[in-house]
Structures are given as structure tokens and as C-alpha cells.
Amino acid sequence: MHHYGKELKITDIVQQQPIVVNLLASSCLPCRRLMPVLEQAARRYSDVTFVSLN
After folding, report:
1. Is position 2 within any domain?
2. Tell me: the pLDDT tens digits for 7-17?
């Protein structure tokens, strides 16, 4: 689920499951390197909600 550029309330996505919140800057090289790792983890762990905020 992607909500690019839209307001999102945490209560919209919380469904009694763990959440990983990643705060990043698109200009940050380590942050950009982490994105594929988090995307892979999101595919692997469907019982966890992953949220990235830029």
C-alpha cells in the first residue's frame, strides 16, 4: 500500500500488528541504501506494517 504525497493517519494503518516506522531523507545515502532492505523485509514479514516517512 502506497500513499505518496497524501496525508496518512497512523490509525488508518494500525490493525493490531507491529509497525516499523522509518524516518528518512531522500538526500541521505545511508537512508537510500536502507530502502531496498526495508522493502524486502516488508515482503517477507506480511504480519508487520512498514511505514517510511521522507
Report:
1. no
2. 777 777 776 78
